[in-house]
Amino acid sequence: MEQLQNSPSQTAPPHIKSLDRSASLPKPSITRFVSTSASPSATANATAASSTTQSSQSLTWDGYLSLRQKRRYYNIIASSLTALASFTGGASFLLTQDIEKISGLMFGLDPFMGMGIVCVGFGATGWLIGPFAGGFVFRLMHRRVAGGMQIKERDLYQRIKKYRCDPTSQSVQNPVPDYYGEKIFSVKGYRQWLKDQRAYRKKRESLTA
What we know:
8 helices; 69% helix
């Protein structure tokens, strides 16, 4: 009994020792989550760019040129209406004024002649304002293809600028045919425009040779 009490304590088992040791615990890992969601402005820009590309791809050249002709009709109709409204409004305003005073401001011209010149000026101003109003109405009516039309418009302008004749040698009797390409309303019309430009160039070269 005494031997058992005085004997040193028995060594602990290996698995107990491993628990008693101050083993280093694994450090908690910190995971950073990076937001992959794009900002609203970038998403809106990407959506607008994709929609513009899709509308440009879906809009054919014949479709674009047909819309171009329709836009010209819008501008002509709008110019006619604004010119008529400006002329009528200007004439109504002048009728309420002192005719003699107006004729004095017109360098001594006949009162009725002076009023006519002023009314024509009102009408011309309205005619110039018309394309802005017509273009605005056209864009409202064709909003879905507006982006595609802008791309096709730039492409057509580059083609016209590249293939049209040099206007330095033109004259009043022999002008460059449709220098700005305003009468191109179909692919067939564009090919005819190219033929006219080549014919004019050959004619000019034959005259200068």
